[in-house]
Amino acid sequence: DAGITQSPRHKVTETGTPVTLRCHQTENHRYMYWYRQDPGHGLRLIHYSYGVKDTDKGEVSDGYSVSRSKTEDFLLTLESATSSQTSVYFCATSAGAHEQYFGPGTRLTVT
Amino acid sequence: GESVGLHLPTLSVQEGDNSIINCAYSNSASDYFIWYKQESGKGPQFIIDIRSNMDKRQGQRVTVLLNKTVKHLSLQIAATQPGDSAVYFCAELTGSARQLTFGSGTQLTVLP
What we know:
Radius of gyration of chain B: 13 Å
CATH architecture of chain A: Sandwich
Shape of chain B: globular
Structural class of chain A: mainly beta
Number of strands of chain A: 11
CATH class of chain B: Mainly Beta
Oligomer: heterodimer
Largest interface: A-B, 28 and 23 residues
Largest sheet of chain B: 6 strands, mixed
Order of helices and strands of chain B: EEEEEEEEEEE
Number of helices of chain A: 0
CATH topology of chain B: Immunoglobulin-like
CATH architecture of chain B: Sandwich
Number of helices of chain B: 0
Helix content of chain B: under 10%
Distance between the termini of chain B: 41 Å
Helix content of chain A: under 10%
Number of domains of chain A: 1
């Protein structure tokens, strides 16, 4: 267990509202990642960070933004939530080797 | 685009039997291939990995085989137990930030 927490764990929001998900780690890992998981798909990378203030886009980044102002926190923001963003969101961290540690997930429903 | 995929979405095995989960990949540039286990309601958990220059790697009750000729990866679980019931994902590691590309997953069910 790499000490990863996600908040909130569950959220229901309306279309068009902004939403921010938080990932917090206590391992001082350099790399952090946001994935989404949908039925019929494996996890797909949204954005990742390779250090404080250093972020980049993943496979499915449209409609999402991220920020990392501290090593321990990685925020994922949906500027204007859409129903297609209903999903389970997972945060992961890595010290730079090949093993990523995943958080417990956030279930987001956009109505 | 390049992708990692799985041959079968579901697999049922008797308790005590061996399980084999297969995965096909298409990106030859990956330097690591990794298997994750995901139990219901939880995040994926690392099981075992294999470097691209290896053919086989063994862990505790698990073995991963890599066949680069046909771009095929498999996970073997010996003496499958009820606690092994989960979704198993293969993933490949690429990029300077060690991004993972996941397959769609196989649901393993262990029958009593």
